[in-house]
Amino acid sequence: MPRRNNDEYNQANDDTKWCYATGSCKSIWNTSMGFAAVKSTWEDQRIGYRQVTTPRQDLYIYSSWALLEHLLRDSGKPIISYEEIQEMNREVPEQYRLESEEEIPNFLTFFHDHGILLYFKGEGTGTHAILSLQWFSDAFSRLIADKKHINRDCKRQHITEWENFNQTGELNHKLVEALWKDEKVDSTNAPSYIEYKTELMSYMERLRMLVSIGEIGKGQSWYVPCMNKKPFTKDIIKANKACSSILCFRYTSFAIFVFYRLVAYCVSSLKWKVVPDKTYRCLFQTAAVFKYKNHTVFLGICDKDIQLQVVVNALDIRTEVSCEIGRLIDMGLNELTQTFENTNLTFQRGYKCQKIFCDENDMSFTLVEDLCQLGLENIECSCCPIGKNHQINVQETRRFWEQNLKETESFPTVSQFPLERTDGRERQRGEPFRKDRDDSYPLVHTQIIGKYEIEKRVGRIQFTKGGDVYDVGTGFRVGSKYVMTAYHVMEKKLEKLWSEVHKLLTEEERKMIEWTKDKLPVTGSWNISNLIPSLDHKRKGRVMGLASILTEQHEIKFEFLKEGAVGRIAKFKSDIAFASPENDVLILELAELESEPRFFNLVEYNISEEKIHVFGHPDGIPLQHDPGYTIIDNETKLTELKKEGIAFFKKEWPEKELDIIDDYAPCVISEDKILFHSSSSTAHGASGAPLTIVDKGTIKVYGMLLHGHPKIFYNYFKKKDMKRPDLLVESGISMRKIRSLLESCLPEFEQELF
After folding, report:
1. pLDDT tens per residue, range 456-506
2. pTM above 0.70, yes or no
3. Domains and CATH numbers, the chain
4. What DSSP assignment string belongs to 393-461?
């Protein structure tokens, strides 16, 4: 495609509009993927962008992306391989080609996010992109068609298998092919579904439309929840001795569709085992029964309520297990609910007043917040008729789903959570951190935060040497045994460790690890233990000595609430679970503890309207709670803030003008980043702090604090009187970005954390 002259500014045809301009372009589409093509300025070069109408909005994208999307659409193919896309890009004139083929996943993910095609990175789905959503939808429709609409060959040869599928939702691979077998050539020349069976089934699994349930005889089989017509029998519950209260998630709409996907989520993501019962699996039209840590989990749907109950054939339920089950289901529902973006789909968390699972006659529902009224041991059920009026035992209802609940516990008031002030007086949670903006937040946030035992989840990372202790940053608990923090918190020590290890290895031994030009392992897990078996005794001792930088000299101190407090010390293992220097993310594995600190739930969605809570150890001081941060998500306001900030700090520090400009440069609006106003109390040592929100009665982490801008203030200027705190900006990385990093190189680890 030849370059156009400047006077060829607009060219329009039936459904596309191409625009070309010269000079500078202030902003081109930003996405959560942070692709390299995003540029803030273009100097004397011709730019093409295309207006694309999507199901959600009009977008303006790069000419290279627009051209490739146009070629994909014109190919007429409903599905296309990754290799074909690479070849298609290579055939484009160089000036209109993607900058590198590594950009293709971001290109595909962008159009996936905006409803134009289907593409997921990862095994099974990353090899192909589905261009025709109608073709994909028709493939699934063929599978779930009623008897009247299945083909004649299936009726003649596979009717027994189909009737079983129609009753139980269990689908074997032979029936898939029979249902997709074409009776005549399709006039649209679309490829056979059978030809792309592996890819189609992988995409349906990824979208939780169905889930693989292993082998039935020969070949793979799947479970399709929406096809299950098997009635639920309550005899299974009666066979168990102890039952929990019923945790309930009430939806305004689409509850049944969320339930179908939740069952698939429990099997595929949580890896829960479906309970067998003689010749069939305990999967029913309105319920599913799983086994988890020797407890039986009942998951059901009744009207608009998704219900959860834990039972066990023993004297009592282990509440730490039931609490974990509740958290996992809550996480799953939050993830699944996000996919109904345009429906304002939400749910409320509450309890049933009785312990009868999926009782159609019981429409009771008591919100968690209503059950947590201060100091009350019993409350009157407001849902049941007057003739069946009764009391709800608050303690007995809550204890299965809320950890560390004591018999005498009532929700604390604000005054029960003292934090130290710099002036020596006691400071309450909710009191402003000297910021010139609204720091208020709902009182219920304080109650939830107090219940969550933040001090057991967030700790001070410190370096010990010769009996002295130096604070280096903040870390927080994730997954079963890990701590997440910013990479730069331990950057110098890690670079020293791995550069020395690199020197000790022979050329052949170095091939065991993929290295960067900086002689560090590439993004992923950094495992020293993999190297040790191949080393001789002398070098083995040297490497283990170097590893003591992590195992002996670094540690994290939880429950550090007051100066002089002993707290709880946890050590790290030498193997690093995940490191990404370029993205400033580090995940360390904890050595064994007698009682592991609690972990946080991670979420990848962005809630820009919400205020966020930051918990950390700025300057190494006892745990601080900085509430009421507001997110910066308006590009115009951000541009004005940066301009004014540069002018202000340049006056105070004229010799540092270029440094100040550079310090503000990374502050750009992107779903990979979280920008928010900081305060003069945030300082070194807070790096790695979790950025949290209070959502549906619990605390969730959706980002991590990395840097303060401009650095000159945090490094030098704090000693002076800070007159303009509104010009300070904190930046963090979103959990969405961290999840995508893990998904690309450590998918199993990603599943554990998210």
Report:
1. 899 999 988 777 787 789 999 998 889 999 999 999 889 888 988 888 898
2. no
3. 10-131 (no CATH), 134-227 (1.10.10), 235-398 (3.30.310.200), 455-602 (2.40.10.10), 612-753 (2.40.10)
4. EHHHHHTTTSTT--TT--PPPGGG-EEE-TTSSEEETTS--S-SS-----HHHHHHHHHTTGGGTEEEE
